């Protein structure tokens, strides 16, 4: 069986298989949690890396994108 005989589950699998047109399956927003960590922090980067490893979308629409509510 060739290395590309299976459908990639994650973007990383697709890159390893040189499948440049890979589009992941849509994931219900309820299947993974939004991240409240500040952009650029180690915690946020760790969460994003975990999402990639698990084959989840990198971004959740409710992820924190700024520090507006912290600067009051």
Properties at a glance:
26% helix; mainly alpha; elongated; 72 residues; single chain
Give a structural overview.
- The chain is mainly alpha-helical and 72 residues long.
- It has a domain at 7-22 and 34-61.
- It has two helices and no strands.
- The longest helix is centred in the middle third of the chain and has 13 residues, at 42-54.
Count of DSSP E strands?
0
What is the H-and-E element order?
HH
Net shape: elongated
Unreliable stretches covering 5 or more consecutive residues: none
Radius of gyration: 15 Å
The description of the largest β-sheet is: none
Structural class: mainly alpha
* DSSP helical segment count: 2
What is shown here, in short?
The protein has helices at 11-16, 42-54.
Give the secondary structure arrangement, pairings included.
Elements: H1 11-16, H2 42-54
């Amino acid at each position: 069986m060739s290395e590309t005989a299976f459908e990639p589950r994650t973007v990383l699998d697709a890159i390893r298989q040189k499948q440049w047109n890979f589009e992941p399956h849509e994931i219900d927003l309820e299947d993974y949690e939004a991240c409240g960590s500040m952009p650029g922090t180690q915690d946020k980067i760790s969460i994003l890396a975990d999402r990639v490893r698990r084959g989840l979308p990198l971004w959740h629409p409710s992820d924190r994108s700024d520090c507006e509510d912290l600067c009051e």
